[in-house]
Write a structure and sequence with these properties.
Largest sheet: 5 strands, mixed
Number of strands: 5
Mean pLDDT: 93
CATH architecture: 2-Layer Sandwich
Strand order of the largest sheet: 3-2-1-4-5
Order of helices and strands: HHEEEEHHEHH
Structural class: alpha+beta
Strand content: 15-25%
CATH class: Alpha Beta
Number of helices: 6
Low-confidence stretches: none
Organism: Acidithiobacillus marinus
Number of domains: 1
Protein name: SCP-2 sterol transfer family protein
Shape: globular
Length: 131
């Protein structure tokens, strides 16, 4: 496996994202477009980004100050734990409540209230676990 959030890792993540109809297909149905940053809470900027257009991952790589719709942070060991075994909705809710996952940009609470977005968000961790 390539280093977490490296360009190679992000390219594989984008491939896995697009393969999953419960992720990319579900987001396409709602016309989801976003730039998502991924990284660590102690750093000023995310490490990597993923561009999603109409549900599909269309670009990814090292973050270079792109405007973000979502900026998701967790400690490196926590990311590795989720990659080893993808969390469910309850696990992610608990991670948010306990501060193990942080959103520097984006409204986690409103996303969870919308099942059209909450389900695919959980599925994004399943895509990570396939890398």
């Amino acid at each position: 496996m390539a280093d977490l959030f490296s360009p190679a890792w992000m390219a594989r993540f984008a491939e896995e994202w697009n393969k999953d109809p419960e992720l990319s297909g579900a987001l396409a149905q709602i016309g989801f477009n976003s730039v998502i940053g991924y990284g660590y809470p102690e750093e000023d900027k995310p490490r990597a980004f993923l561009v999603v257009q109409n549900g599909k991952a269309t670009a990814s790589g090292v973050y270079t100050d792109q405007p973000l719709n979502w900026d998701i942070r967790a400690q490196h060991p926590q990311w590795l734990k989720w990659i080893e075994k993808s969390p469910g909705m309850t696990g992610l809710g608990m991670a948010f409540t306990t501060g193990k996952i942080k959103f520097k940009v984006g409204d986690y609470a409103s996303m969870l209230k919308d099942p059209r977005m909450a389900g695919p968000f959980v599925k994004s961790f399943s895509a990570m676990s396939k890398i």
